[in-house]
Design a protein that fits this description.
Length: about 280
């Protein structure tokens, strides 16, 4: 690993406050456990969780004259497999950390790995971008479920993560409506296929050839969205996948259309089984 410059004390303090938050952060026992697992000594100067964490990490990076072990600690704490049963906590803490890390030219990816990005100088850069995007989308009467992803923490570099998170919301809505647990093309086939069976979701009564064609076309649209944007953004290095404002507007508009279609979809299988 390359030698990483020391994290600014103000940024480090914010990181420790996020991880040691009284209501939603790590417990004191967890902090001690993770410090020990990362071979970082606890100077035991303060009893407050975030201050305890700050003292330990600040001392370590001053001893090392770099931030490598500090970054390793964050990655260790935020390893996704550690939080498999609390995705809400993981995503909330990750988003908060990324606001702070963006000032240091770093980003904690969904994989739990911290990667370099173009640093921002002020929060207003990301906030102004989010406000501008949100205003244009509101003018377009974009679905509310898409507006949720116009957040500063998702726009600290470009529009990459706003689009990525918005595409994930499609699969989440389908799963919520159907109680299916799969993803991607498999989820779409299970939810919308109708040949020889009652589909979980239907855009119409599927009584005519035209209605069947619409159902098939919608399935292909969903698979296209996943294949073109979600799967690409999930696997391509961010530096090679640049999404500008116009791209984001067009993609999010398509996702908005999909959400409206899903909201109006007939929950055919539940109706057939008498569950509605």
């Amino acid at each position: 690993m390359a030698i990483l410059k020391k994290i600014d004390p103000a940024s480090l303090e914010s990181i420790c406050k996020i991880l040691g938050d009284t209501m939603n952060g790590l417990t004191g026992t967890e902090i001690s456990k993770y410090l020990n697992e990362c071979n970082i000594s606890d100077p035991k100067i303060n009893s407050t969780k975030w201050k305890k964490l700050y003292d330990a990490l600040n001392l370590k990076q001053n001893e090392d004259k770099c931030a490598n072990n500090l970054i390793f600690f964050i990655q260790h704490v935020m390893r996704p497999s550690r939080h498999f049963d609390n995705a809400t906590w993981f995503n909330e803490i990750r988003n908060k950390l990324n606001i702070v890390l963006s000032f240091e030219g770093l980003e904690l990816e969904e994989t739990g790995i911290i990667k370099p990005i173009t640093a921002i100088k002020t929060l207003s850069e990301a906030e102004e971008r989010a406000i501008k995007l949100r205003k244009v989308l509101i003018d377009r009467k974009i679905h509310n479920d898409v507006l949720l992803f116009c957040k500063a923490e998702l726009l600290v570099d470009n529009y990459f993560h706003a689009v990525f998170e918005a595409t994930k919301s499609i699969a989440e809505k389908i799963r919520n409506k159907t109680s299916l647990t799969t993803d991607g093309s498999e989820l779409i086939d299970q939810a919308f296929s109708f040949k020889g069976k009652i589909p979980h979701l239907a855009l119409s009564n599927l009584m005519t050839e035209s209605e069947e064609s619409e159902q098939k076309g919608f399935m292909n649209l969903l698979k296209g969205i996943f294949g073109t944007f979600r799967n690409t953004t999930a696997h391509a290095p961010k530096i090679t996948w640049t999404i500008d404002e116009q791209d984001a507007l067009d993609i999010l508009s398509t996702i908005s259309l999909i959400h409206r279609k899903l909201d109006k979809a007939i929950e055919a299988k539940k109706m057939y089984e008498g569950k509605l």
